[in-house]
Structure formats: structure tokens, C-alpha cells
């Protein structure tokens, strides 16, 4: 397999674009080559198989959607209360909107995992790892609530992100006075995260 890391990353990003646009059935090496603007046959030199490409898309898209370290450090300088959780959820939603393609690719990976047991195993481990990391982060940061709080936030925010990125009309006006998505983020956090005294 070819070893140019910049070219590999560009091909994986092209794969994310193809997956989000055309779905898993449209994800071919030829389509990736076209999206990346490289000669036909390039992707087959970088990935052992389509499953290898899908696994690398999974890893890459999670990196693309991760919080910016400087922005996260700035947020974590705030008091560890419900308003900080709200700010973190706003940041999560902003990242989803900025990289809509990345999130749509994740949804396509989920659908493909329902059809392919080998992908289901690796993708389940990947997503479960993200959820467990979120729980650990919440605990270590001393944020209000517990693992149940994080699990419910995860489920609610995932639902909000999916609706907002795919069928935004479903949510407009569903809760009077709550803008989409910002106001709904506020409502989710207020409903899920306990209010505690501010802590430094």
C-alpha cells in the first residue's frame, strides 16, 4: 500500500464526501479518485479493500468533528455548572453544522453497519468509545450530573443533530419560542442537566 500520509488523508476526505453524497453503494475507489481529483487507480493503491476505506473514514470523520483544543480549553476555564454544559452542547452543534458532510457520512456508516456485521463490530466499538469518553470527560471535569445525564444528553443531541441536518423542517416551531437549533439545545440541557451551585 502507498504511504504518502497527505495523499491518504485527502483520499479519505474524498471518501467522506462521496459517502455523504451518494451513500455506501456509491462509495467506490473510482468515485473516490474522481472526488479527490487523482488518476483512476490511486485509491486502490492506498486501501486494501472497501472495508479498509470505510474503517479509515470512520477514524477520520471523528477527528474532523472533534472539538478544537483551544476552543475547548477556553470553555473549560468557565465555572463547572449547567451553563458550561450548555456551551459545550452549542459547540457540538456548531461543529456538526460546520461539517454537515462529516455527520452525514457518519449516518451512512450507521446504515451500512446494519447490513455488514464486520463493519457493525468496528463501528459499534468506535461509537461506544466516543460515548464512554464523553462520560469520563464529564466526570473528570466535575460537571453537574452523572453517567445517566451524559447518556441522555448524547441521545437527545444525536436526535437533534440528525433532524437538523436531514429534515430541519420537522423541528421549526415544534416548541414555541425555541429557535432551531440553538433554542432546542438550551431546552435539552435545561431538561437533562441538574442545576447546581457554581463551582470554580
UniProtKB/TrEMBL annotation:
<dbReference type="InterPro" id="IPR041583">
    <property type="entry name" value="TetR_C_31"/>
</dbReference>
<dbReference type="Pfam" id="PF17940">
    <property type="entry name" value="TetR_C_31"/>
</dbReference>
<feature type="DNA-binding region" description="H-T-H motif">
    <location>
        <begin position="28"/>
        <end position="47"/>
    </location>
</feature>
<feature type="domain" description="HTH tetR-type">
    <location>
        <begin position="5"/>
        <end position="65"/>
    </location>
</feature>
<protein>
    <submittedName>
        <fullName>TetR/AcrR family transcriptional regulator</fullName>
    </submittedName>
</protein>
<dbReference type="Pfam" id="PF00440">
    <property type="entry name" value="TetR_N"/>
</dbReference>
<keyword id="KW-0238">DNA-binding</keyword>
<dbReference type="InterPro" id="IPR009057">
    <property type="entry name" value="Homeodomain-like_sf"/>
</dbReference>
<dbReference type="InterPro" id="IPR001647">
    <property type="entry name" value="HTH_TetR"/>
</dbReference>
